[in-house]
Amino acid sequence: MKPQxxxxxxxxxxxxxxxxASCGKVTIADMNxxxxxxxxxxxxxxxxxxxxxxxxxxxxxxxxxxxxxxEKGQPDIAPELWSNSLKTALxxxxxxKRLRYAGKSLLDGGEEGFWVPAYLxxxxxxxxxxxxxxxxxxxxxxxxDPEQSAFYTCPAGWNCQISAGNLFxxxxxxxxxxxxxxxxxxxxxxxxxxxxxxRGEAWFGYYWSPTxxxxxxxxxxxxxxxxxxxxxxxxxxxxxxCEAPKPTMYPPSPVHTITTEEFAKRxxxxxxxxxxxxxxxxxxxxxxxxxxxxxxxxxxAMFYFLESYPKIWQAWVPQDVAKKVKQAx
Length: 329
Description:
Layout: H1 3-23, E1 25-30, H2 34-51, E2 54-59, H3 62-72, E3 77-82, H4 87-95, E4 99-104, E5 111-117, H5 118-123, H6 130-135, E6 149-152, H7 159-170, E7 178-181, H8 186-199, E8 205-209, H9 212-216, E9 219-221, H10 230-237, E10 255-260, H11 261-266, H12 268-276, H13 281-294, H14 298-308, H15 310-314, H16 319-328
Helix pairs in contact: 2-14, 2-16, 13-14
Protein name: ABC-type glycine betaine transport system substrate-binding domain-containing protein
Keywords: Signal
Signal peptide: 1-20
């Protein structure tokens, strides 16, 4: 090897080692649902190749990860934390300078609602409202009783079954002939939408975003005409003992990226990336649909995203970082 080349290689190696030393070892929680594992893999790749961090994924889940970050300072990063589920503890962690809310991983927040297929709304525009749903109740035939109309709810045991049931009651859907249909599972609920869509049939029920289903199928969220009453939603709609629920749209669920204070101080440039990194539900729905169609894991989806959506991720980082990430791809 020529001396000049050896010197260049030594300088490159020194630069990489210096960057890694300043950023250090970084642990990232890899949650067990598709959007979270995609984001975790994207973060690992960008931190490693763009910022020179020694980035590593470790298994995570909402409650244990949040608790561990507050009590033990590990992992360094939770890329997609639905923060309402442990808001009091997270806020206390921020107050005690253990944690930071770095940014929103889902810019629109998690979105819940009652939905109908877009092709139905095209035919009957008033189906975009709850009054239109009641007016055309006969369209939504019950799978077992043609005399009844079907409202597909959240699977039994899920928290959203409580809110969906209370809103069904609040809007007196039973008086229009609707009966609640329990799909039995997440697959049963998404399967009922897919089946209706393939046949061009009517469907009405609860669903949420971001999901592969709303990436594949064009659905319209029904307007209850109530606006969002967050106080009512928290104190009554989501409670099993809510005796007199009132109509309210679902408030967006905040979905944050949380980092430890130690990481933010140790690697300020890498931390700044998290303040800018975020997905819209529309983008995420499209990627999740691709993941499902291709049976892709988080790492495969990460490569698909970085290669297919450069304009999105390059806006999160400085030009020199984007160049390093592109070279690594």
